[in-house]
Write a structure and sequence with these properties.
Belongs to the protein kinase superfamily. With 324 residues, the protein is an alpha+beta fold. It has two domains: 107 residues, Phosphorylase Kinase, domain 1 (2-Layer Sandwich), CATH 3.30.200; 197 residues, Transferase(Phosphotransferase), domain 1 (Orthogonal Bundle), CATH 1.10.510. Strands 1-5-6-4-3-2 form a six-stranded mixed beta sheet, with helices on both faces. Helix 6 runs antiparallel to helix 8, helix 8 runs antiparallel to helix 10 and helix 10 packs antiparallel against helix 11. It is globular. It starts with 5 loop residues before the first helix and ends in a 9-residue tail after the last helix.
Length: 324
Amino acid sequence: MYTENGLRDFLSTNGRVVLEKAGSDYVLRSFTEKEIEKITFGYSILLGKGAFGEVYRGMLSKRPVAVKRYINRTRKEEFAREVIVHSHINHKNVVRLLGCCTEENALMIVMEFISNGNLENLLHYNHANGRIPLPLPKRLDIATVSAEVLAYMHSMYRPVLHGDIKPANILLDENLTPKISDFGIARLLSADEVQHTASIIGCRGYVDPIYCQSGILTPKSDIYSFGVVLLEIVTRKKAVERNSTLVQTFNDALRAKKVKQLFDEEIADARNMKFLLQIGKLAAKCLKLDVTMRPEMPDIADCLRMLRKDMQREQGSTSQGFFF
């Protein structure tokens, strides 16, 4: 944990990482607390809140932005990590980091605003006109692009482990194109580095049980979490309901050979069934307790791309949801 001036020292030490170009046109901006207050209209439009603090909508140079405000000032290390790790990632399907405020009592991150909420809300909550229809091609698009982003992160020169993959951290734009967000507990690895964590991080229902036992976060931990996300996408069931987890329910259905009954009725028709079973099979591999049996993220992305191409070929390019 950092002392009173520790965060400033930390960011100063890592200033090259935080403020340098992370891509040919990617430069982070430093904001003052007064500038943030103006951008957010006095913190008047609350988008959401969590253990870390609050997220507000604002306007910067006539474009909407989201401002993440750390309320808990003891989370300086998490804030610093989020800025540093996020600044390393320059991918069109990662929420774009625009800048930060590092004043002692005003730790804030400014990001692009993503207009359509997140995958959790889309899958599990009713909207003004009821549940939004979500055809399988669109679900497969979301899964494929999300896997491609994670494959990119895991394959970087200094790999990034997200550590908190779940539908709430997969934001959706106006076309339901996914963008990965929230790098507060992410880790940036060096060659051959083992990532121990002082306590178990992540969300119940998504956390890799092997990581819980060892305390060592690896790319396979993200893969386990992504397997849970795949199950949510095809079942439209929450990762945790009452005292049961979706993984437990899925494993029980596997043993009873009743997996088909888990799939969301909206998409579980004869035309889609073989693709749903393939996605379920891929999810099962991601959830293996033997981590050596779990596929790598690039292989998962390849598998989903092939499924998407097969579905497009069989069902036609007019199938609702395909990006290409």
